[in-house]
């Protein structure tokens, strides 16, 4: 039996991996930075490798020291020995820890003895007393160690990878650390938020359609649990809608028999006026049942989304009404590609245009597009709607008593159906009265890439 060690894919584990990646990044960059440090750090690090040479030359006689120093090939490319009475030794001995010159005086311990050392580079006047070829080695730096007899051994580094005063080194080191943490945080945030962004895109795609397929379960364990709960809720809503549709279809079918019987019995009523009123009531009941069934079936959601020319669709609507002598005009761009359900969107716009023609005598279709959304406005020149009823008219079977009642046609489902279509596209419809008279139905839909 194979045992597979697989880390748990949870948000907590991803955050832990993020912190670990940031720490590893800091360590790696710190290691890289240590290879490019200036003389202050590199020379101190080289003292441990130079101690054997210092011991050897310190124990040798004055005659052998120049030859031994010339054979040095460790921390530096070259070494020079200066007697205690030489001008170089006197300058090095006079160097003070708090001197304003750019050198650093430290103590060098060997076998329990404390030896004086000086770190400096070409910018320090001390470098003028050291014997080496300046033209060939413009980046040289120096480590000088005082021996027991007050003579000095000077190690000469011929090449320095990186140069800068200590404050600059600190700033750059902190910058490296900050950049590594920032890079790890940005990458971790991107990968952590990617499944959440995908989940949000899936929600925008399905909109308010309970018949849409389930959302694909991806991402950390907690997010997958949330998606699974959402899919379960969506399945319950889908079952509820289907049961509701079946119930309404059965009611509509069962209503046809008693309505037909009422119509047949109405034929025996001798009073023509009463008979006409009865038939009108029967027709209204039948129309209400059929309208309700058509609305609750949500037929527009069975249409597949596709890319279509929205401007061309609106222009076609205006031309069709114009061919029948109805005053409908279109204003906007000649072409605009939009992803949605063209037939459903056409029915929604025609419902708004029908209302504008029925109650406002004319209709104007206007399309405005931006980088984030599209706006379609249907305007008329009618009496408008009372302010308190601007939202109520979207309620199923709601009708205004005066200007928009059953006598003028409609069952109060046109605006409700239109809003349902637009909301399925991720948008919404709002109504407002125009200054000077008229009503404007404003459709706003986001542009989803």
TrEMBL record:
Residue intervals passing through the bilayer: 12-33, 170-192
Catalytic activities: ATP + protein L-histidine = ADP + protein N-phospho-L-histidine
CDD domains, alphabetized: HATPase, HisKA
HAMP domain sequence ranges: 190-242
SMART domains associated with the record: HAMP (SM00304), HATPase_c (SM00387), HisKA (SM00388)
Membrane topology: Multi-pass membrane protein
InterPro entries xref list: 2C_sensor_his_kinase (IPR050980), HAMP_dom (IPR003660), HATPase_C_sf (IPR036890), HATPase_dom (IPR003594), His_kinase_dom (IPR005467), HisK_dim/P_dom (IPR003661), HisK_dim/P_sf (IPR036097), Sig_transdc_His_kin-like_C (IPR004358)
Protein name: histidine kinase
Species annotation: Paraburkholderia agricolaris
């Amino acid at each position: 039996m194979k045992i597979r060690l697989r880390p748990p894919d949870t948000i907590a584990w991803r955050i832990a991996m993020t912190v670990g990646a940031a720490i590893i990044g800091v360590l790696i960059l710190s290691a890289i930075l240590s290879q490019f440090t200036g003389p202050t750090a590199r020379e101190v690090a080289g003292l441990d490798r130079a101690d054997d040479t210092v011991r050897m030359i310190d124990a040798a006689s004055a005659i052998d020291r120049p030859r031994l120093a010339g054979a040095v090939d460790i921390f530096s490319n070259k070494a020079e020995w200066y007697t205690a009475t030489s001008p170089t030794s006197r300058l090095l001995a006079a160097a003070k820890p708090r001197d304003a010159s750019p050198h650093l005086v430290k103590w060098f311990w060997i076998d329990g003895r404390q030896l004086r050392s000086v770190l400096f580079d070409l910018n320090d006047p001390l470098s003028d007393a050291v014997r080496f070829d300046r033209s060939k080695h413009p980046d040289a730096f120096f480590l000088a160690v005082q021996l027991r007899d007050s003579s000095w051994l000077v190690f000469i580094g011929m090449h320095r990878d990186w140069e800068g005063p200590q404050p600059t080194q600190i700033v750059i080191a902190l910058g490296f650390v900050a950049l590594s943490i920032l890079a790890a945080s940005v990458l971790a945030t991107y990968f952590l938020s990617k499944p959440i962004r995908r989940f949000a895109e899936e929600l925008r795609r399905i909109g308010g359609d309970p018949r849409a397929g389930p959302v694909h379960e991806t991402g950390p364990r907690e997010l997958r649990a949330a998606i699974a709960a959402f899919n379960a809720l969506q399945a319950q809503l889908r079952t509820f809608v289907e049961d509701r549709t079946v119930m309404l279809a059965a009611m509509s079918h069962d209503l046809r028999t008693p309505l037909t019987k009422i119509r047949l019995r109405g034929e025996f009523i001798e009073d023509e006026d009463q008979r006409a009123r009865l038939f009108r009531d029967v027709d209204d009941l039948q129309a209400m049942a059929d309208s309700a069934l058509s609305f609750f079936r949500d037929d527009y959601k069975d249409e597949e989304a596709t890319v279509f020319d929205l401007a061309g669709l609106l222009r076609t609507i205006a031309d069709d009404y114009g061919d029948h002598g109805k005053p409908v005009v279109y204003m906007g761009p000649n072409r605009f590609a939009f992803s949605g359900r063209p037939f459903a969107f056409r029915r929604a716009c025609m419902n708004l245009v029908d209302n504008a023609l029925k109650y406002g005598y004319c209709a104007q279709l206007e399309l405005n597009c931006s980088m984030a959304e599209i706006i379609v406005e249907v305007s008329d020149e009618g009496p408008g709607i009372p302010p308190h009823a601007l939202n109520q008219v979207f309620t199923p079977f709601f009708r205004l008593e005066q200007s928009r009642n059953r006598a003028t046609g409609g069952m109060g489902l046109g605006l409700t159906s239109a809003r349902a279509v637009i909301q399925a596209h991720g948008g919404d419809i709002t109504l407002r009265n125009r200054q000077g008279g008229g009503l404007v139905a404003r459709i706003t839909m986001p542009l989803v890439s």
